[in-house]
Design a protein that fits this description.
EC 5.4.4.2; magnesium; Anthranilate synthase; binds the ligand C=C(O[C@@H]1C=C(C(=O)O)C=C[C@H]1O)C(=O)O; alpha+beta; 10-stranded antiparallel beta sheet; 24 strands; IsoChor_synthase; binds magnesium ion; 11 helices; globular
């Protein structure tokens, strides 16, 4: 990794191209970050559509933190053994990279955004054909907005024979186009059909899961189902992101676009945040609706906090995360009791986790260790995954899996991709699941998934 101070784009590119070793790997990433004037992330996202580039959007609404990426400078992908292979590709790429980033702000500089399949073992269907079991993109252009300040990062993969003057003009022009925003009006679209996939079969699977749990074969199994929508025209992703931003607070709002397919959502569930060695994780499980009045809302909240079944769902997550972090972290701090985590359509039990990551471990190690937590898989992990593979009538794809970003300064954040939908042109698949424990009632769990569909359903026009 080479760091250079105060150079122009042209000079940096020139330097990088000249430094290529023709006898070795004759290409490398050049990454240049500049602070820019205030820029609207959604406008940048829209402008990127006009350029025909694939886009990625990430917002942590709580911190007013935004990342918007356009295009792709480097792709990191893996099928099997994905954590190790992706980390190797990331490290190798960074070693060769020329990075000009004087700011060191989390989420600037060389940054990979992406995600992975929930279960690389389960047989895939055509639904998720555009999404690999592990896939990160280092976008060509990244807008970072953090604490009111905006940064533009340009990532270029330079090769021998590249012309620095031309290349510099080209990337600066494109940067300007993206920062100028889009004049194109967003497009309305309407739901024309709605289909729940196998609701009766799903309830039956829940019943079976409770049986297995009562027989002591597992303690918790999370089962998910799908709801399909059809639209009168292609769904406008920019419009969906805007609506999610307007309606879903306390969430991570995301979109990963691959051609006509796009995975979008607003998830409240942090898996891990790393700032150098300071680690945060979250236990989020146990659900109640929001009340119509503040009295009703408080009553639902109180009942949730005291409900044995929901507390059980939650506690499995807390103990698993505690154990998973034990070897890799010090100073682990977890409160004894959960608190409420209110969202627009529902409320959850929430326990925050704070720790320090030990030297020698990376965010990849932590994700590998944590995924899937009992919030999305179950307890014990292997037993619950076996049950899901056998009885869940759904290709989860990236639903329920870690999605997020990491940068070259050991910062990163990953969330669990729930409250989400895969948009495929004029169609959408929505996903929602429930933690099934010994005394789960299939009808009630079914109702719980109905509420969990709401954040996406409402922004898709239902
Ligand atoms: C599986 C989902 O959510 C998970 C299940 C919960 C529950 O059953 O109480 C609550 C939050 C998440 O851990 C989902 O939203 O699809
Ligand atoms: Mg539940």
């Amino acid at each position: 990794m080479i760091g250079i101070k105060d150079k122009t784009t042209k000079e940096l590119l020139q330097h990088a191209i000249q430094s290529l070793d023709p006898n070795k790997n004759n290409s490398r990433l050049v990454s240049i970050t500049k602070e820019i004037t205030d820029t609207n992330p959604l406008q940048f996202f829209e402008a990127a559509k006009d350029t025909g580039k694939n886009r990625v959007f990430w917002a942590s609404t709580e911190d007013e933190f935004f990342l918007v990426g356009a295009g792709s400078a480097v792709e990191i992908t893996a099928e099997d053994n994905r954590f190790e292979l992706m980390e190797k590709q990331w490290d190798r790429m960074l070693k060769e990279a020329v990075i000009h980033n004087p700011y060191k702000v989390p989420g600037t500089g060389v940054l990979a955004l992406g995600g992975m399949a929930f279960d690389p073992v389960k047989k895939r269907t055509g639904l998720w054909e555009s999404f690999r079991p592990g896939h990160f993109t280092i976008p060509e252009y990244i807008l970072t907005k953090q604490q009111g300040k905006c940064y533009l990062t340009i990532n270029v993969y330079v090769q021998e024979g590249d012309h620095p003057v031309q290349l510099s003009r080209q990337v600066q022009e494109m940067g300007g186009t993206l920062l100028a925003g889009s004049k194109r009006p967003t497009q309305d679209f309407y739901v024309t059909a709605r289909e729940e996939i196998g609701p009766e079969e799903w309830k039956e699977a829940v019943r079976r899961a409770t049986e297995e749990i009562q027989q002591g074969k597992a303690e918790k199994i999370v089962l998910a189902r799908e709801l399909r929508l059809k639209f009168d025209r292609k769904a406008d992703i920019g419009k969906i992101m805007k609506r999610l931003m307007d309606t879903q607070s306390n969430s991570y709002i995301f979109s990963f676009e691959k051609g006509d397919d796009c995975f979008v959502g607003a998830t409240p569930e942090r898996l891990v945040r790393l700032e150098e060695n300071r680690l945060l994780s979250t236990c989020l499980a146990g659900t109640a609706p929001r009340g119509r009045t503040s009295e009703e809302d408080e009553r639902f909240g109180r009942e949730l906090l005291n409900d044995e079944k929901n507390r059980q769902e939650h506690d499995f997550v807390v103990s698993m995360i505690r154990n998973a972090l034990a070897y890799r972290c010090t100073d682990i701090s977890i409160p004894e009791e959960p608190v409420l985590y209110p969202l627009k359509n529902l409320q959850h039990l929430y326990t925050p986790v704070v720790a320090r990551l030990k030297e020698g471990y990376s965010i990849f190690d932590i994700i590998e260790q944590l995924h899937p937590t009992p919030a999305l898989g179950g307890t014990p992990r292997k037993k619950s995954l076996d049950f899901i593979r056998k009885h869940e009538y759904l290709d989860r794809g990236w639903y329920g899996a870690p999605i997020g970003w990491l940068d070259s300064n050991n910062n990163g954040e990953f969330a669990v991709a729930i409250r989400s939908s895969l948009i495929r042109g004029k169609e959408a698949s929505l996903f929602a699941g429930c933690g099934v424990v010994a005394d789960s009632d299939p009808k009630e769990e079914y109702q719980e998934t109905n509420i969990k569909f709401l954040p996406m359903l409402t922004v898709l026009g239902e």
